[in-house]
């Protein structure tokens, strides 16, 4: 039996690993698979609901790091996970994405001599101010197997002399979740619940420190929201970080008083995916949502200066926009009058990336 561990810690991580159990089960008796949850995201809305909806196995290991500072969380993950890896001795540890848990788990793997696979390898925003970029760099320096979602990832790894390992262009496991759960997504009644119609609303998420941590940026956000709600309902599932920041600066009321803003706590996967699928357009600063919008061919305006997922722009329906209402309004006009680009689904974003990965594991482990 080959022992494979997967480390998850945050909402996007859970979404990236949904199909592994099913794929491992296609090879009875060949894999002992353990799920390790660091506890970086731990509450009902950001964690439990995803385990329930995806039918993920309960974590075999839960590192209870929730109330610690980010640096202490990283330290605790390294200490606790290293102890577990030293005892269990897996043949491979898989880490998805670019969050602190990803980087910390990679260091634990390195310090215990555990072979490491990075899922979503090679993505680069080339913006070292972005905490995730440093997590990606560290993880890729330590990884032995690189599972890559788009061609830019292959190119980046090949250009970086400090990354040595095997590059596998397999597609996008985040899209595997959409394809695998599409029937359940369709069954969601979120549009009825919010009393909105397909294409009659805009979906927004915002949580990057660079967009929500200062009063100045939050004022700009409110300006953009007021502009959009002149013509559309705006569905805004609010990330805990953004809510806290709006409260800290006394600005939450300015959004809650706008009756065309449909506020909610972070939404479950099926509801959120249904909202993506039927929205007129999306305004976001998320990494993953740029990809999900691209897959659905829904226009996506991303409030960031750069993206580590360039295929969503060169092939997909995504555009980077500055925090400037005049520029954003130009794009919204083009979406409203139908002249905005339609975009194509990138190569290998077909719902079979996890299947390809497990086939590769069959040969390399
Ligand atoms: N998501 C969700 N409910 C929400 C907001 C986002 O299920 O209310 C999903 C979204 O579809 C995507 C993932 O969470 O799959 C993205 O997470 P996030 O934007 O927090 O992280 P990032 O991708 O920026 O790392």
Offer a concise description of the structure.
By secondary structure, this protein is α/β, with parallel strands linked by helices.
Layout of helices and strands, plus pairs?
Blueprint: E1 2-8, H1 11-16, H2 20-25, E2 31-37, H3 44-54, E3 61-62, H4 70-88, E4 92-96, H5 100-111, E5 116-119, H6 131-142, E6 145-148, H7 151-159, E7 166-169, H8 173-180, H9 182-187, H10 190-194, E8 201-204, H11 209-212, H12 215-228, E9 233-237, H13 240-248, H14 252-256, E10 261-264, H15 269-277, E11 281-284, H16 288-296, E12 300-302, H17 311-314, E13 318-320, H18 325-336, H19 353-364
Parallel strand pairs: 1-2, 1-4, 2-3, 4-5, 5-6, 6-7, 8-9, 8-11, 9-10, 11-12, 12-13
Helix pairs in contact: 4-5, 5-6, 12-18
The protein binds uridine-5'-diphosphate (UDP).
Uridine-5'-diphosphate binds next to helix 1, helix 15 and helix 16.
Structure overview:
With 365 residues, this protein is of the alpha/beta class. The chain has helices at residues 11-16, 20-25, 44-54, 70-88, 100-111, 131-142, 151-159, 173-180, 182-187, 190-194, 209-212, 215-228, 240-248, 252-256, 269-277, 288-296, 311-314, 325-336, 353-364; strands spanning 2-8, 31-37, 61-62, 92-96, 116-119, 145-148, 166-169, 201-204, 233-237, 261-264, 281-284, 300-302, 318-320. It has two domains: 2-171 and 349-364, Rossmann fold; 186-336, Rossmann fold (3-Layer(aba) Sandwich), CATH 3.40.50. The protein is built from 19 helices and 13 strands. Helix 5 (100-111) links the parallel strand 4 and strand 5. The model has no long low-confidence stretch (mean pLDDT 96). Bound molecules: uridine-5'-diphosphate (UDP).
């Amino acid at each position: 039996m080959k022992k494979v561990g997967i480390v998850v810690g945050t909402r996007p991580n859970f979404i990236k690993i949904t199909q592994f159990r099913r794929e491992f089960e296609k090879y009875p008796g060949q894999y002992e698979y353990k799920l390790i949850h660091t506890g970086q995201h731990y509450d009902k809305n950001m964690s439990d609901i995803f385990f329930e909806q995806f039918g993920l196995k309960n974590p075999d290991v839960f590192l209870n790091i929730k109330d610690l500072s980010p640096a202490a969380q990283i330290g605790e993950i390294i200490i606790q996970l290293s102890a577990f890896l030293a005892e269990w001795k897996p043949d491979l540890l898989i880490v998805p994405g670019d969050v602190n848990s990803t980087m910390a788990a990679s260091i634990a793997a390195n310090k215990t001599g555990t072979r490491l696979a990075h899922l979503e390898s090679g993505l680069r925003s080339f913006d070292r101010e972005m905490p995730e970029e440093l997590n990606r760099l560290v993880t890729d320096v330590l990884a032995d197997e690189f599972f890559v979602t788009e061609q830019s990832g292959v190119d980046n790894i090949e250009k970086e002399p400090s990354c040595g390992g095997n590059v596998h262009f397999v597609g996008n496991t985040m899209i595997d979740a959409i394809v695998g759960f599409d029937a359940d997504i369709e069954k969601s009644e979120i549009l009825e619940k919010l009393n909105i119609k397909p294409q009659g609303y805009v979906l927004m998420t915002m949580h990057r420190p660079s967009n929500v941590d200062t009063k100045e940026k939050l004022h700009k956000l409110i300006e953009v929201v007021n502009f959009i709600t002149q013509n559309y309902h705006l569905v805004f599932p609010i990330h805990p970080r953004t809510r806290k920041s709006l409260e800290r600066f006394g600005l939450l009321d300015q959004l809650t008083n706008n009756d065309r803003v449909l506020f909610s706590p972070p939404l479950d996967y099926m509801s959120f995916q249904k909202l993506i699928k039927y929205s007129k357009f999306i305004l976001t600063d998320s990494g993953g949502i740029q990809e999900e919008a691209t897959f659905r061919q829904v226009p996506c305006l991303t409030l960031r200066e750069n993206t580590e997922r360039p295929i969503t722009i060169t092939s997909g329906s995504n555009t980077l926009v500055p925090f400037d209402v005049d520029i954003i309004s130009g794009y919204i006009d083009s979406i409203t009058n139908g002249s905005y680009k339609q975009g194509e689904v990138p190569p290998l974003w077909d719902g079979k990336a996890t299947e390809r990965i497990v086939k590769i594991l069959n040969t390399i482990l």
